[in-house]
């Protein structure tokens, strides 16, 4: 008996236009990042588990609850990457990328987190990330934010994306704030939700992110990071805001925004939308000057962002923004049935001289059957090249989506003909 397998929980097949939309969003980021001089880096899907334990932090949900961990045949503990920043920093250290050069990098690819799946939240999802190493900022922080802004415009979704901004200040001011927060929350510990209670000793800043209403209420009356910033931190944040203002980039300051990771310093930001229900966050980033040292490198300034392609594609679809499908433009029906060098040359010529997608019918069959397939393929034209036509040095062009009469077009003029038609 044949077993039928279903896809594993949290994993997805993306078909036709859904797949095209994912590529479209990725390409928008990749093209823009390249235009800004960012270079591609390809990173492994599997890393040593410790890299994420150290680099993302044991106190985060991502590491403590959501990692896919396996032991390989040699007994090493490996994890499917839950994010890209730790790998990127590891790669920069391992490959001495900062010698005489300050890299600005981008990557794209799947990430894995064992989360409870729902619309916009999957166990396998795709991120585009950008990281800039060796820059004190805030010029590069501004540039990273600008890249996102440019892409939202390009994708036609800018009006549904908001930018939230905060600063965590220098390590010293952050430490003072952390202590104040612990001092404030400890006497009220019995009123905190269980997760926040746990975080009180491991990652107290993350409590500011809690979705629990009671915790939120307690936190809202507590200390505020802006009261703990030293002058250097204030200056950095003011400078960042004036650079964003100068570029006309809109943002809202949110002093509860922390992004949970211990190594963040100064800038933190998030891009959000209210068009996707519970999944508000499209991406985020910030400055993480402490991470290189945590991973055994020299102290290095660093800033970056990661965006979730799946969610951006959903938003793009919700906005009814169109995306060009991968369907062929021209479907070539072949009444001759066998391989024909003349027809072959025609198709190669079209592919070489135009940007049109030219799909050849496969498997023979009567003309009527082939034309039915041409119609189903989604192509705009059927190109009919039978013996009769080829002997006259023409091919028949039939419009599949418009009520127009079929015409014969000279083979020599075919590329020009389609170029004129194709708007
Ligand atoms: P993070 O690395 O947690 O800051 O996530 C960056 C972005 O990745 C988020 O804003 C989301 O758009 C996306 N993302 C994170 N987790 C998931 C998930 N489980 N499913 C889909 N997208 C996700």
Enumerate the strands of the largest sheet in spatial order, edge to edge or round the barrel: 1-5-6-11-10-9-7-8
Which of globular, elongated, flat, extended, rod-shaped describes the shape?
elongated
Please tell me how large the radius of gyration is.
27 Å
Q: Main sheet, how many strands, which sense, barrel?
A: 8 strands, mixed
Structure ligands: adenosine monophosphate
Task: Calculate the mean pLDDT score and round it.
Answer: 93
Low-confidence stretches: none
- First-residue to last-residue Cα separation: 52 Å
Per DSSP, the total helix count is: 15
Secondary-structure-derived class = alpha+beta
Task: Give the fraction of residues assigned to helices.
Answer: 25-40%
Beta-strand fraction estimate: 15-25%
Number of strands: 16
What oligomeric state do the depicted chains represent? single chain
């Amino acid at each position: 008996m044949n077993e039928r397998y279903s896809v594993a929980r949290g994993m997805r097949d993306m078909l036709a236009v859904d797949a095209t939309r994912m590529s479209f969003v990725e390409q928008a980021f990749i093209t823009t990042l390249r235009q800004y001089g960012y270079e591609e880096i390809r990173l492994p899907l599997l890393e040593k588990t410790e890299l994420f334990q150290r680099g993302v932090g044991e106190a985060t949900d991502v590491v403590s609850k959501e990692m896919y961990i396996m032991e390989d045949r040699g007994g090493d503990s490996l994890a499917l990457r839950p994010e890209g920043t730790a790998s990127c920093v590891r790669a920069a250290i391992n490959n001495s990328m900062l010698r005489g050069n300050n890299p600005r990098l981008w990557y794209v690819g799947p990430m894995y987190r064992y989360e409870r799946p729902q619309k916009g939240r999957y166990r396998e999802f795709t991120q585009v990330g950008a990281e800039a190493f060796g820059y004190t900022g805030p010029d590069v922080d501004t540039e990273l934010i600008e890249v996102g802004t440019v892409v939202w415009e390009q994708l036609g979704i800018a009006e549904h994306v908001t930018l939230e901004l905060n600063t965590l200040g220098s390590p010293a001011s952050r430490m003072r704030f952390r202590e104040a927060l612990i001092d404030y929350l400890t006497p009220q510990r019995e009123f905190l939700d269980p997760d926040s209670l746990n975080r009180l000793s491991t990652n107290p800043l993350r409590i500011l992110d809690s979705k629990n209403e009671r915790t939120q209420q307690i936190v809202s009356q507590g200390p505020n990071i802006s009261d703990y910033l030293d002058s250097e931190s204030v200056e950095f944040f003011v400078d960042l805001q004036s650079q964003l203002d100068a570029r006309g980039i809109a943002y809202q300051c949110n002093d509860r925004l922390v992004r949970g990771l211990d190594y963040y310093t100064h800038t933190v930001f998030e891009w959000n939308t209210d068009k996707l229900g519970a999944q508000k966050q499209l991406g985020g980033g910030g400055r993480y000057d402490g991470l290189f040292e945590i991973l055994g490198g020299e102290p290095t300034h660093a800033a970056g962002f990661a965006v979730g392609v799946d969610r951006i594609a959903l938003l793009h679809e919700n906005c009814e923004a169109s995306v060009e499908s991968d369907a062929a433009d021209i479907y070539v029906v072949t009444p001759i049935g066998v391989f024909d060098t003349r027809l072959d040359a025609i198709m190669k010529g079209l592919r070489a001289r135009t940007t049109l997608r030219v799909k050849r019918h496969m498997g023979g069959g009567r003309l009527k059957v082939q034309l039915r397939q041409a119609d189903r393929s989604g192509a705009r034209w059927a190109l009919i090249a039978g013996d009769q036509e080829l002997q006259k040095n023409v091919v028949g062009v039939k419009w599949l989506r418009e009520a127009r009469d079929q015409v014969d077009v000279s083979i020599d003029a075919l590329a020009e003909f389609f170029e004129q038609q194709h708007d």
